From TrEMBL:
Pyridoxal 5'-phosphate binds at residues 249, 291-294, 391. Signal peptide: none annotated. It is an enzyme of class 4 (lyase). This is Diaminopimelate decarboxylase. GO terms for biological process: lysine biosynthetic process via diaminopimelate. Keywords: Amino-acid biosynthesis, Decarboxylase, Lyase, Lysine biosynthesis, Pyridoxal phosphate. Gene3D superfamilies: Alanine racemase, Lyase, Ornithine Decarboxylase, Chain A, domain 1. InterPro entries: Ala_racemase/Decarboxylase_C, DAP_deCOOHase_LysA, De-COase2_C, De-COase2_N, De-COase2_pyr-phos_BS, Orn/DAP/Arg_de-COase, PLP-binding_barrel. Residues 42-297 form the Orn/DAP/Arg decarboxylase 2 N-terminal domain. The active site is at residue 362. Specifically catalyzes the decarboxylation of meso-diaminopimelate (meso-DAP) to L-lysine. It comes from Virgibacillus salinus. Belongs to the Orn/Lys/Arg decarboxylase class-II family. LysA subfamily. SUPFAM superfamilies: Alanine racemase C-terminal domain-like, PLP-binding barrel.
Length: 435
């Protein structure tokens, strides 16, 4: 049963329930398409990382990668759970400020940070900038002089490990737009520039090896590579990092094929590896930082759609179309990502049909799910697609001038609108007349 793969239940009416609320009531109250988050699952995900570090007694920061899903309410929940925050743009930083996120717990990423972005980060006194390239070192140095301020930085390095569909490959000469290459001298050159800069407090190293990773091996390989370099810098410059940031990428279950290890197990293994290397190099254990995005928001969210038209092609397939699609979930079209779903109003009924779920956009590639087993399906049924909490709303578009869908949070049987549905006025509000 599909529900076995997802943290939701059926109620006595046979409807899908989320956070103690009937999903059909939510669809009726707020309309569809609708992103719905069970806040207790967001909190549980946050705690599974934070508590594991606490139990292990190591200093750590768990920074939510807000690109996965950024909204004022989401960042408020993450703040309540004591996490730090990873932002990659002025828009994400602005949202964090709106949510009253403590600036000292915000880290800024980006491979092309602008003067405006860096200025805002420095003015707010954010906790850390993750420096990505030489151009940026120059910009930060100039801005810090102008503001007469100092800032903590990490250096982002590319260790030459990539996670490809849950396996790791060594890519020798890393071909990436992000970070300093660890092996060709660039990281060493950047290290010296940062280490010797009087306005910069060089806190440590960062790497991010990929996304939707199911085990600890890749993080452990990255740790080994980073420590190799740290060992060199320690010998040459007596440098000991205060922080080691191993990035995000912790995988979630989209379909039954996905089998991520519990986050606590992955964290335990990577902490053990860091400790092992620190002791090998006779160094104090650095603070360990990680940046989970998908693992915090992904499985806590689902999307409700209303079924509209149906097209049967005898001997080929049945298409059913819903009132959203690639504008609210780009991942199937962009990455051929797979999802599971149920008819929320018929979730207890036996499966009899196989349908392919199409979006509304004027584009053949706008398909949400191929070959979904469902009970007898008709227009006005409500389809719930699971695990849409990460990179759904955050990657939404206005293609075909669809207004962006609303977001509702549910917790303890209460629902609350946290992002309004866009109106057609919102869609045209920046248009200017040419007559
Ligand atoms: N830290 C850094 C430096 C990153 O680049 C990313 C994701 C994360 C953390 C968070 O990764 P997560 O824990 O969410 O896997 N749009 C794609 C995912 C792009 C991820 C980019 N960087 C998707 O929908 O699968």
């Amino acid at each position: 049963m599909i529900l076995d793969n997802h943290p939701f239940e059926l109620n006595s009416k046979g409807h899908l329930e989320i956070g103690g609320v009937d999903s059909i009531n939510l669809a009726n109250k707020y309309g569809t398409p609708l992103y719905v988050y069970d806040v207790s699952i967001i909190r549980e995900n946050c705690r599974s990382f934070v508590d594991t570090f606490k139990d292990l007694g190591v200093s750590a920061q768990v920074a939510y990668a807000s690109k996965a899903f950024s909204s004022t309410a989401m960042l408020q929940v993450v703040k309540q759970e004591g996490l730090s925050l990873d932002v990659v743009s002025q828009g994400e930083l602005y949202t964090a400020i709106q949510a009253d996120f403590p600036p000292s717990k915000i880290h800024m990423h980006g491979n092309n940070k602008s003067v405006e972005e860096l200025s805002m980060a420095i003015e707010y006194g954010i906790g850390c900038i993750v420096v990505d390239n030489f151009f940026e070192i120059d910009l930060i140095s100039k801005l810090l002089k102008k503001y007469n301020k100092t800032i903590d930085v990490l250096i982002r390095v590319t260790p030459g490990i990539e996670s490809k569909t849950h396996q790791y490959i060594m890519t020798g000469n890393e071909d990436s737009k992000f970070g300093f290459n660890l092996h060709n001298g660039q990281a060493d050159k950047a290290f010296l520039q940062l280490y010797n800069n009087e306005n910069i407090h060089f806190k440590g190293l960062h790497c991010h090896i990929g996304s939707q990773i199911f085990e600890a091996d890749g993080f452990k390989m990255a740790t080994t590579m980073l420590f190799k370099k740290i060992g060199e810098w320690n010998k040459l410059h007596d440098y000991t990092p205060e922080v080691l940031n191993l990035g995000g990428g912790f995988g979630i279950r989209y379909t039954k094929e996905d089998t991520p290890l519990p986050y606590s197990s992955v964290v335990k293994e990577l902490v053990a590896k860091v400790k092992e290397h620190a002791s090998m190099f006779d160094m104090t254990i650095p603070e360990i930082w990680i940046e989970p995005g998908r693992a915090i928001a992904g499985n806590a969210g689902l999307t409700l759609y209303t079924v509209g038209s149906k097209k049967d092609i005898p001997g080929v397939r049945s298409y059913v179309s819903v009132d959203g699609g690639m504008t609210d979930n780009l991942r199937p079209a962009l990455y051929q990502a797979k999802y599971e779903g149920v008819l929320a109003n018929k979730a207890a009924q036996p499966v009899t049909d196989l349908v392919s779920v199409a979006g509304k956009c004027c584009e053949s590639g706008d398909m949400l799910i191929w070959d979904l087993p469902v009970p007898e399906i008709g227009s006005n049924d409500i389809l719930a697609v699971f695990s849409t909490g990460a990179y759904g709303y955050s990657m939404a578009s206005h293609y075909n001038r669809f207004p962006n869908a609303a977001v509702v949070f549910v917790e303890n049987g209460q629902d609350k609108l946290v992002v309004r549905r866009e109106s057609f006025h919102d869609v045209v509000k920046n248009d200017l007349s040419y007559e």
